[in-house]
Amino acid sequence: MSRKLYLDNAATTRTKKEVIDEMMQYFDVLYGNPSSQLYELGRKSKEAIEKARKTLADFLNADEKEIYFTAGGTESDNWALKGVAFANLNKGKNHIITTKIEHHAILHTCEYLEKFGIETTYLDVDRYGLIDLDQLKESIRPETMLISVMFANNEIGTIQPIEEIGEIAKEHGILFHVDAVQALGSVRIDVNKLHIDLMSMSAHKLGGPKGIGGMYIRKGTRIDNFIHGGGQERGRRAGTEGVQNIVGFGKAVEIAARNFDNRIERLTGLRNRLIEGIKNNIPDVVLNGHPTRRLANNVNFSFKYVEGESILLLLDMEGIAASSGSACTSGSLDPSHVLLATGLDHGTAHGSIRFTLSEEIKEEDIDYTVETMKKIIAKLRAMSPIKNDEDLKKN
Amino acid sequence: MYSEIVMDHFRNPRNAGRIEDADGIGQVGNPKCGDIMKIYLKIKDDIIEDVKFETFGCGSAIASSSIATEMIKGKSINEAVEISNKAVVEALGGLPPVKIHCSVLAEQAVKSALYDYAQKTNKVIKGLENYKPEDDEIHCQH
Predict the structure, then answer these.
(1) Is residue B33 flagged as an active site residue?
(2) pTM of the full structure
(3) Top-level class of domain B4-118
(4) DSSP labels for A11-23?
């Protein structure tokens, strides 16, 4: 089987050729340190960074001074939470509201902040992965300093009502942080319309290089600096800038902005083709996430009576790369916390598979994936004691 | 991640299926933990004439079941009961540390099936005198 299908684009994406071409000269031609402003080589690097910053700012309807470059989404999440917590702790604020389905970069940072007396409320989600706005309102306390909700979930693709959450946060004078790592480039984001104060971003999820991300920080937001050192990123995130990575990030955003609506429309069509294909060809499946309020490239199903790692290994043999929320693939004891939060039982969560598409995928690839899954699930179910016991009960 | 032997047994499982008139059946694990193994034994004159397995689980769970059935097929019940998880791991050419529990499950499934046979036939199998089928409902053995 010579076919190779990469359907794990929520994990990372292929760096686009155009992005690589743009980055190359910043390794060996324009390699100056952007802090060295007294000669041209340094100034060129600085200009390149500012150009990327402007691209990102325009894309988000933000001001250039509100965009900061970091090492990635995880760093941005850490900065948002720790930075806001430490800046507000002595102001009598010690409470954060987030959700049960956040990335570990948020959840583990909240756990860490408990050491400093910060309390966190974790909002529930419904079976589609959506939070309840009433529960959010009820969770607000006089000490609440921050609401942190992910724009779109990395596993099930569910898109939260960000604008409504932003309005609630604004009404109560609470800062609003959004982890937009998966959403950037897939959902239109206007930080002003959505009332976002802080937002985490990553380049490698949309065709940019790994190791570079960004943070939007609304002017006037009370937040501590994160990396202490030189004056880079206006003193807030010190360290010599990864100029070539920043350039690559800027280029990836420029490409994403270029053909936004057509790209998303096409991806949505492919996504729905895969969802329908699996639903119509394989019995006993559960679509995880929201049927429509989901990322244009995200498909996540649970296949009853079988386990995710086995499916992934068989998919790999057929040239398809995907991912699973099974415990066996996470190295932990439990299946995905996201799937469990949507109310899925452990057994069904162990049989979950996520396919995340890219623009490189064609309709015939989707059909090949459906056919392959059909074979794989039948093969594994034939040796599943749960499946066979269920069948016996029915007869 | 997995050895060639593990992948071979995962790709082409030996003795997958069920035996309708089995003389001994053992099932261990639970869906909460993500793995269940069920072993069926056909025994004549204390010799395991046939063995089949059904497994819900990861690649190494399926491979462990498969190789365990090969290791006990044709053996006497007294030989079969001596199967150890270590022997399963060795036969598989090793397992990643987080997957060792799969080999433990295979050992338990075989013993559980032999215990079932001993209970049904009022036999005493050396090594199973104090055996109690494991209750895996409480915690997952990863």
Answers:
(1) yes
(2) 0.94
(3) alpha beta
(4) T--PPPHHHHHHH
